[in-house]
Amino acid sequence: MDTYMLWMLAEGPGKKLQETLGGEIGSLFFLAVIFISLTLFWKRAFTAFLGFALFAMLVSVFIFQPELVQRLGSDGFRWLFEAYLR
Fold first, then answer.
1. Which key words tag this protein in UniProt (predicted)?
2. Which residue, 58, 40, 60, is CA-closest to 50?
């Protein structure tokens, strides 16, 4: 019982630390994406710019908003197989 209480107490600060660091890392990621995108755009490397922009969008969605990906997947599955689920 004592280890369970210790586990519950440790979960609170860890969760808060994860949220705080996640926000900071997200801001640094966004800053790096802006810098690299502007550099590629300035050099007129449009193909590399588009590829990097798509890659950055995918990484940002999968890393920083996995709930969105999960919700889109479940909604898409329901939309595709709605007739079979009834």
1. Membrane, Transmembrane, Transmembrane helix
2. 40
